[in-house]
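I am still getting used to backbone structure tokens and would like to learn alongside you. Would you supply a protein for us yourself, any chain you care to pick? Start from the sequence, derive the backbone structure tokens from it, and show both lines together. Go ahead whenever you are ready, and we will take it from there.
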Amino acid sequence: MNGDGIERRVVDAERPLTGVTYGPAVDADGYVLTLITADGPLEVEFDQEAMYLLWTEVRGTPWPDPPTSTESDLLVKRLVELANGADEEMLREAIRALGGER
């Protein structure tokens, strides 16, 4: 722990795909965010409201230093932005327009 009372750990670079995971808590209500660090695993428990707040905070947040986007990347991003604000009928229309109707 550093002088400001915050514990800091670095996610293990050797485990990039499993270094950060989250899911339902096994032995408690809510969710667990697990970080695999060089010093061992660190689990942070969230109740449902806190997990939802975290999820909505990071949802759609761009990577801090995004790679150069292609025109296709920008179009997909715009489509997702519009889908997030659409009602059910608008979503159905978009799916039909994209040939995804089943």
Remarks:
- The mean pLDDT is 82.
